[in-house]
């Protein structure tokens, strides 16, 4: 499958902005069975400086500087991605007992695992998460079966509710509420896995949405999405999505991987202005190439 993706971020400020500095995590890398065919970022007003780099986790990050005074800022990212090598079924190695994938941040010589085993700023391990996970991660159960069962239970026990949490809501609060958005669902699953010493990452990207039968697909109605990558050693990952109770297969496009949302927000930065209020509008289109 090949997808053409357009992501537009539109800011409106009530006072002029004299300078904007931003980092954008919206350009897909070659990773996880996907291949990026083309990618670019443009801004209105045009950027004074723009540079693409790789961060510590291998993500493509675009640094932007805009020095022209403005009250409106638009950031357009476009990309084309092939996901033909991303399986929609659980890989064969996941049939091994889940205890075979338990790692150690101190004794196992795998730096990738170490990064995603420890507490991170937004996801801390805890007994409540370990106890919740152990209902499915029982002795002798395969990693694949345990993941599917836990993923399904989070999907069943938690209500998708955009009004229940925001980007700053602590994980413990979202876990107690049993409500939230894809960011919260992913953080809960990560906390559960890390509490069992299984390395897990936060993955941000896009998911092709399918319109209701008989209705046309709405332009701009897609969204950024978040799911979880479970590390299996040798730089192998299993992508799994508790928000939608499914594996992250060929309909998913990865833009970035980190310890939690704080490592890989779609766009972050600072502005120089006396503006006290602003309006943010985001439009995303993920269109399969026929």
Structural features, described:
With 290 residues, the chain is of the alpha+beta class. Helix content is 17%, strand content 38%. The strands form 3 sheets. Strands 1, 2, 3, 4, 5, 13 and 14 form a 7-stranded antiparallel β-sheet that branches. A 5-stranded antiparallel β-sheet has the order 11-10-9-8-12, with helices on one face. β10 and β11 form a beta hairpin. The longest helix is centred in the middle third of the chain and has 15 residues.
Sheet of most strands: 7 strands, antiparallel
Query: How do the helices and strands follow one another from N- to C-terminus?
Result: EEEEEHHHEHEHEEEEEEE
The Cα radius of gyration reads 20 Å
Oligomeric description of these chains: single chain
What is the CATH topology assignment of the largest domain?
C8orf32 fold
Report the principal-axis shape: globular
| Proportion of residues in extended strands | 35-45%
Broad CATH class of the largest domain: Alpha Beta
The CATH architecture term of the largest domain is Roll
Task: Please tell me the overall pLDDT.
Answer: 92
Spatial separation of the terminal alpha carbons: 9 Å
Uncertain parts: none
Helix share bin: 10-25%
> Helical segment tally?
5
Kindly list the characteristics that best describe this protein:
290 residues; alpha+beta; Immunoglobulin-like; C8orf32 fold; 2 domains; seven-stranded antiparallel β-sheet; five-stranded antiparallel β-sheet; 5 helices
